[in-house]
Amino acid sequence: MSTLLEEKDAIRDVLSEYCFCLDGGLHAEMAALFTPDGVWETAFGSGHGRDGIKELLSRIGRPSGAEPRAVHLVGNIVIKIDGDRATVRSNWVEPQNSRRGPVIEAAGAYYDDMVKLNGQWLFKHRRIDRFVADTRGPHLK
Fold it and tell me: What is the CATH number assigned to the segment(s) 4-133?
């Protein structure tokens, strides 16, 4: 049986893997971090189920090798576990390269409901609050 700290560490790994998949254009791998009926709620629409999440990613996500490069960073993580369920609140920031040097493209908060299925923590519902955003467009002129 895992300790509370081991469970929290496993959840933090999922939060980090999400960022690596999102930034690397790994759409199927990112969708696999959700339950089969999971919901990904973004500022650009919602994806329902793994196929719906992949479809939304194909429209709004960066493809692998896309320029300019960006990275999602997660911090201020608060995890509350109740058996095989967890609620997670965290902040994120997305620095990105631009023609004028590094800039913060966006930042906000993640609000997650997670469940442990077959020994693995997965997102049941991830809501993204994007309250800091650069409005100049994708290449940040």
Answer: 3.10.450.50
